[in-house]
Write a structure and sequence with these properties.
This protein is of the alpha+beta class and 201 residues long. Among the domains are: 47 residues; 64 residues, Roll (Nucleotide Exchange Factor Grpe, Chain A, domain 2). The chain has 4 helices and 6 strands; from the N terminus they run αααββββββα. The strands form 2 sheets. The protein has a 3-stranded antiparallel beta sheet with strand order 1-4-5. Strands 2-6-3 form a 3-stranded mixed beta sheet, with no helix packed on it. Strand 4 and strand 5 form a beta hairpin. Helix 2 packs antiparallel against helix 3. The longest helix has 49 residues. About 3% of the residues have low confidence.
Length: 201
């Protein structure tokens, strides 16, 4: 028994290796094939987006500059106001001293003014002044009898003295003052020197 011969290939059939394949990137349309009108629309959209971003950045910059300017002006006003009224409390305390001086002058102008009353009024005023200075950190320098210190004292003259050692303060013509640890005003003093006879011996 003979086997049947294999079927002959159809005239329309093609070998497997000759079947055409779709080219790579067949889904992407080349830019050259995109209509010019569509390209213009895309460019206009990108340009509008860039312009919007630039406008937003400029607006933010202007707001930041305005905020900075407002802050600067406010700080200047605050600094000016602080400097203008920085001495308010100081002046209030001085007013009490001024009132005391005014009362003392009124009392001194009376025909029957008594020296004792005037002295008491001046002592009250002096205590007010000293209290005011202490609150400001000011202390008086009274170097009477102490060795002469050119850093805190100004010698006005030298006088012979047998009671005070040489180069010591014999008398204080004007008190000196110190503000905390800084010299505010030197004391004007008279410095003692050895008597002529003692110096010769």
């Amino acid at each position: 028994m003979t086997s049947a011969p294999p079927p002959s290939p159809s005239p329309d059939a093609q070998p497997e290796d000759t079947v055409p394949h779709a080219p790579e990137g067949a889904g992407a349309v080349p830019e050259s094939e995109i209509p010019l009108e569509a390209q213009l629309v895309a460019l206009e959209a990108a340009l509008a987006e860039a312009e919007q971003a630039a406008a937003q950045a400029k607006d933010a910059q202007l707001r930041a500059a305005a905020d900075f300017e407002n802050t600067r002006r406010r700080l200047e006003r605050d600094a000016q106001r602080t400097a203008q009224y920085a001495t308010e409390n100081l002046l209030k305390e001085l007013l009490a001293v001024a009132d005391s001086v005014e009362l003392g002058l009124k009392a001194a102008r009376k025909p029957d003014a008594e020296v004792a009353a005037l002295t008491e009024g001046m002592e009250i005023t002096q205590r007010q002044v000293n209290s005011f200075l202490e609150k400001q950190g000011v202390t008086a320098l009274d170097p009477a009898g102490q060795p002469f210190n050119p850093d805190e004292q100004q010698a006005m003259s030298m006088i012979e003295s047998a009671d005070v050692p040489p180069n010591h303060v014999l008398a204080v013509m004007q008190q000196g003052y110190r503000l905390h640890d800084r010299l505010l005003r030197p004391a004007m003093v008279i410095v003692a020197k050895a008597p002529a006879q003692a110096a010769e011996n």
